[in-house]
Amino acid sequence: MSVFPATAAAKAKGRGTTAAGSRPRPRKNQRAAYLFIAPLGIGFAVFYFWPLLQTFAFSFTEFGAFGGHTFIGGDNYARVIKDVTVWQALGNTLIYSAIGLTALPIAIVVASLLNRRGLRGVALYRALYFVPFVTLPVAVGLVWNWLYNGDYGLLNEVLGRLGVDRNHWVSDPSTAVYAIGAVMVWSTTGYYLIIFMAGIKGIPRDYHEAAELDGAGALRRFFTITLPLLSPTLFFASIICMINSLQTFDLIYIMMAEKNPAIGDTQSIVGLFYKWAFIENAQGAAAALAFLLMLLIAALTFLQFRLQKRWVHYG
Amino acid sequence: MAETSGTQAPPAPRRRVDAGSVATHAVLSLGALVMVFPFLWQLLTALKTLAETSRVPPTFLPDRWNWSSFEEVFTALPFREMLTNSAINTVGRTLGQLVFCSLAAYAFARMRFRGRDVLFALFLSVLMVPSSLLVLPQYDIIQRLGLLNSTPALFLPGMFSAFGTFMLRQFFLALPKELEEAARIDGAGSFRIFRSVMLPLIRPALAALAVITAMWSWNDLLWPLVVNTDPREMPISAGLTSLEGQYETNYPVMMAGSLIASLPMLLVYVFLQRHFVQSVALSGSKS
Amino acid sequence: MRRRTLLGGALAAPLLAACSGGGGGSEGGGRTTLSYGMWDPAQAPGMEKIIAAFEKEHPRISVRIELTPWASYWTTLKTSMRGGTAPDVFWMNAVNFQLYASSGVLEPLSGHIKADATPVDRHPEALVRLYAYRGTQYGLPKDFDTVGLWYNKALFDKAGIAYPDASWTWDDVRDAAAELTNPRERVHGFAAEMDRQGKIYPAVCGAGGYILRDGRSGFGDERSIEGLRFLTDMVDRGWSPPQSAMTESVGRVRYWSEKVAMNYDLSAMAGQMYAVPALKDHGGIAVLPKGRRRATIIHGLANVISAKSRKKEAAWEFVHFMAGRRAAGIQAEAGVTISSYEGTQDAWLKSMPEFDLKNFIDMQEYAVPYPSSENTAVWENLQYPLLGAAFSGKGGVESAARTLGEQMDRALKEESGS
């Protein structure tokens, strides 16, 4: 357990020019550190860790719809593993994650374009890219469903002129998952954009100016200065992006009608969790499913932390 | 909004229109169109009649521009109370996260103490569970605190965030060490170094976290619906869903309501985005 | 005046809690406020009117509506049941009823009904029975819904076909659907949508099949499959849009946009249809055409009392009032739903004189109650994923129905086992 993720970060940091920040400090400093963490720790204990423990216990029981439970051992976990819809949902979820990750490069490129000095109207662009945040999720679902509509949608009109066959994009089992994935990228790009804009602004201007004096072009500066110095932010964003896409649910819920023939081909793990817990009154099995998902996410996060020393540069 | 762009980068030399910036503008404005389109659709829907919103083939522009939905919002919902609840909820969560997360993030990034890595991993685990898993037990806690149907119930759990801690930690990690060292030699204590040296340096990150948290809090739906069933204690996000019927949803009023409700968030963003614009000046903070 | 004393008892507790040491008999502050949970904003104005009438009769009780959107109604209700913040009185439907009744979270009403002589027999018997569990009544119906055949007179005229009437059979529907379908104008004769209450259940029952009987699924039954085939055939022959197209633009919307000539739909839709000028002008309603037998599906909502309510006596007064003639009359005038109280439907019929709404009421005679069990949602959720392909014109309805029957039987077995 001692080589857990953050140690990798500490080690990477330790390799820097001066290791002052992480040099062993006297006890006084240790106490201060605990005080820094205490407020958040207390909040987490009350509102997250305790509920988490409770729910974990519940995952070994069968819930009454209105409280009351009986211990049934590992039956819920067995049910999850045996259920074919779980495996299908897992496959869908992994596809969403792969598609969802493409939001990161798009956001980086846009963020660095928005960072171009002297670009006119840059503040206006920034505001416009923020607009998806304030758009009602229901409106997002409606407009995309209209664009994708097989009979009357704009997409088919445009593609039709290019010679592509009409399709019911969100109700054709072979395309629905990608159609939703595209909307996912659309709706999350603005959010990573904000994180990257903050990250890029954290890079001291002096570095760019020095490189510019050395005659480095914009593209070169992007790869030799922006990207490495942005790597801690990028690392954060990639983990968040992975976690979020593995937990995808809302968008599918909004876009996919219950009667959609492609519903099984688009259902995510959290969607299945929601169905079990809140519609079919199988809270115990739902909790087991959520914990297995958590295990998967933890494993993938751990992997990313292990790999970070290869590409993340800390100050 | 456009004015700020003129003042944001004074050191930049004025260049002539070159191919690069034309291409940049082309890419950015195409992207902007894609980003704004659903919002426009929302506006157009708000201006349609209810009957027109569900028709095949769907119409793009309203048959007749109908503004009555914007008035109807105020009679259909206790709009003012709901906006107040939303504001309190948003401010509560955002302030809470800025304070609690920056403190913890600083300790995780720049201090050494026993159990740090384990604690950090434990904190991160909060991110890994789907939030709806914890809704029931969290509800039980709020109930035991006697806070059901109250404003604090809206923001209490949301003040503590693993996302914010992780994000700020990354930004703290990216800072060079020399500044901290200098301050320490000057004899400053941990909290002073944090407060007056390090915190100002991650201002863009704090602004970004504030914007993201504010948006999440403003739009949060499931939690407020579960914990505050009294309409007068609901935030606007939850209130708007009461326009959803079993068979029919009053989309025009819903869209109009959400447009009005989104204005404060746009203002918050316009105000905060200045902090993205100004680069951190390392030399300035040394003195 | 038994009612008064009952009410007095109910009022005592909150009064004592509110003013400790008060002299008693004081007028002020003696009001009991009931919360009333519902989900349909369209019905809120009518309910407010009923509440006003109730409050006039019971000056010491006031009722406050808690409107929760349909999409989160049941989730929220279940959670608030745990915390004791559930409304005192709330709407219940057939799908959820047995789950709530079997869990003991609803207040039994049989004793009250007997004591206060609530006119239960004036409501359709099938509906009343939907809200009884193991011989005890837990809910009293407030309204009902049947499914009828909606058609577009203008499209019928254009095709030169006589309008549907009570003599129509499934063959007539098929013939008309073929004639009415006009691919050039993207008009379909029929909307054979995958929709349980509006299409699947009525078709299955009309073919002489069944959904649920004695704890067993009817989907594997030959007659039931014949009912399903009535619908999927329409898709296969191109007389109805496939399900893949109808999830994107639903049958109901196609009907009121005059892109579908015939559609099975609920009586509850009348208000919305009436708001569409074209339909008000030339929308028609007929009873469902006969398959092997006459059938439609009847469903209605009921008012129930939370077992955790601390104001049960006042809550009963309200539920009792809601089941009476006066409340039903006010509800009918509001025009949103059909009141279930016999003889109060006139107001509803008159609220939309251009529509032949009477057909919906006449169908009560052979209406089949909406099928339900203790955990209805579980087996209902099996239907759409399994039947989706067959309703999208990909065939295989027989095997899909048999699989559905087997899986539903398994779910039912699990339900009774736990």
Q: What does this entry look like structurally?
A:
The complex is a heterotrimer of chains A (315), B (287) and C (418). By secondary structure, chain A is mostly helical. Chain A folds into 2 domains: 21-58, no CATH class; 75-310, MetI-like (MetI-like fold, Orthogonal Bundle). Chain A is built from 15 helices and 2 strands. Chain A is flat, with a radius of gyration of 24 Å. Chain B is an all-alpha fold. Chain B folds into 2 domains: 20-66, no CATH class; 77-286, MetI-like (MetI-like fold, Orthogonal Bundle). Chain B is built from 17 helices and no strands. Chain B has helices at residues 2-8, 19-46, 50-53, 68-76, 79-110, 116-128, 135-144, 151-155, 162-174, 178-185, 190-201, 203-219, 222-227, 236-240, 251-272, 274-277, 282-286. The longest helix of chain B is centred in the N-terminal third of the chain and has 32 residues, at 79-110. Chain C has 418 residues and is α/β, with parallel strands linked by helices. Chain C folds into 2 domains: 2-20 and 27-144 and 299-351, D-Maltodextrin-Binding Protein, domain 2 (3-Layer(aba) Sandwich), CATH 3.40.190.10; 147-297 and 373-417, Periplasmic binding protein-like II (D-Maltodextrin-Binding Protein, domain 2). Chain C has a 5-stranded mixed sheet. A 4-stranded mixed sheet of chain C has the order 9-12-8-13. The two termini of chain C are 45 Å apart. Chain B binds chain C through residues 50-51, 54-58, 76, 135-136, 139-140, 143, 148-149, 222, 225-226, 229-231, 241-248, 250, and chain C through 39-42, 66-72, 75-76, 79-80, 82-85, 249, 253-254, 256-257, 259, 266, 268-269, 272, 275-276. Chain A: It is a multi-pass membrane protein. Chain A: It is found in: Cell membrane. Chain A: It comes from Streptomyces alfalfae. Chain A: Pfam families: BPD_transp_1.
